[in-house]
Amino acid sequence: MKGSLIIVGFFALGCLFGVFHWIPFDIAKTDISFYALCALMFSVGVSIGNDPQTLKNFRSLNPRLVFLPIMTILGTVSAAALVSLLLPHRSAADCMAVGAGFGYYSLSSIFITEYKGPELGTIALLSNIMREIITLLCAPLLVRWFGNLAPISAGGATTMDTTLPIITRYAGQQFVVVSIFHGFVVDFSVPFLVTFFCSI
Amino acid sequence: MFTVIGLMLGGMCVGFLLRRQRFTWIHTVITALIWILLFLLGVEVGGNRQIIEGLATLGVEAFGITLAAVLGSCIAAWALWYLLYKRKGGRA
């Protein structure tokens, strides 16, 4: 939660800088954000490749639950496509790109800004922060309404770190491995799916 | 567009090949880059009058998409849960 607040803080600080034109040159016309994005993705790759824990975790998984990340992705993307019917000036692909952030607000908003501009990028940032907050607040309700796997699906890409404690508390200790596996797969799918929906 | 994904896959190879060394500082680098990029996104948003004036509408749209996304994924998770547990009485 503290991490999300700092992130929102940086975004808000940037907004202030933009509104009052405190930066002497036009950032949108430079490639700074693209190079920073490249550096970020390289670092994310290194951190995944360098972590010996990921492979170990997957060996102790109920094989039938490998379908959970697929269900999350299908459920999210199809619901986002349906919502685009209610938002006449947003295309289905735009809504699916926002949904395909799966709560990974930092990365998805940066990607969408890069490909679709800052307006949809802002929607992606807000939407994916909300997804994390809804999961944190509603986990017990989701378990009661939709069963033990629901908070894991709702958490999307965050289920291996920020929402893991709340999931293990309300869904049960036996779902730790599923939750981490799910978070890893969905997390990994974000750059691919977001890029895909931005390009169609 | 695929440069970025290529870089991530390249990073994974580098991280895997150098797995004897622990890159504990990589998470600090990631956090710092995320802060920089969101600051830059903020600057772009703040400098764009249209977005600032429509921020409330954007928030409502974001909430609509989020609500649908959460419900959609929960219904899908419920279907899987029903197939695996309710019907067969399996375990995690």
How do the SSEs of chain B run, as a string of H and E? HHHH
- The structure class of chain A reads mainly alpha
Chain pair with largest interface:
A-B, 102 and 76 residues
Q: Tell me the count of domains of chain A.
A: 1
Query: Spans of chain B with pLDDT under 50 lasting ≥5 residues?
Result: none
Total helix count of chain A?
10
Q: Average pLDDT of chain B, to the nearest integer?
A: 85
Overall mean pLDDT of chain A stands at: 88
* Distance N to C terminus of chain B: 39 Å
Specify the overall morphology of chain B. flat
Number of strands of chain A: 0
Question: Largest sheet of chain A at a glance?
Answer: none
Biggest pleated-sheet summary of chain B: none
What is the approximate shape of chain A? globular
Oligomeric state of the chains? heterodimer
Strand content of chain B: under 5%
Concise summary:
The complex is a heterodimer of chains A (200) and B (92). By secondary structure, chain A is mainly α. Helix content of chain A is 73%, strand content 0%.
Describe the structure.
The complex is a heterodimer of chains A (200) and B (92). Chain A is mostly helical and 200 residues long. Chain A has one domain (58-199). Chain A has helices at residues 2-19, 32-49, 53-59, 67-83, 92-99, 105-116, 118-146, 150-155, 164-170, 176-199. In chain A, helix 4 (67-83) crosses helix 10. The longest helix of chain A has 29 residues, at 118-146. Chain A is globular, with a radius of gyration of 18 Å. By secondary structure, chain B is an all-alpha fold. The model of chain B has no long low-confidence stretch (mean pLDDT 85). Chains A and B meet through helix 1, helix 2, helix 4, helix 5 and helix 6 of A and helix 1, helix 2, helix 3 and helix 4 of B.
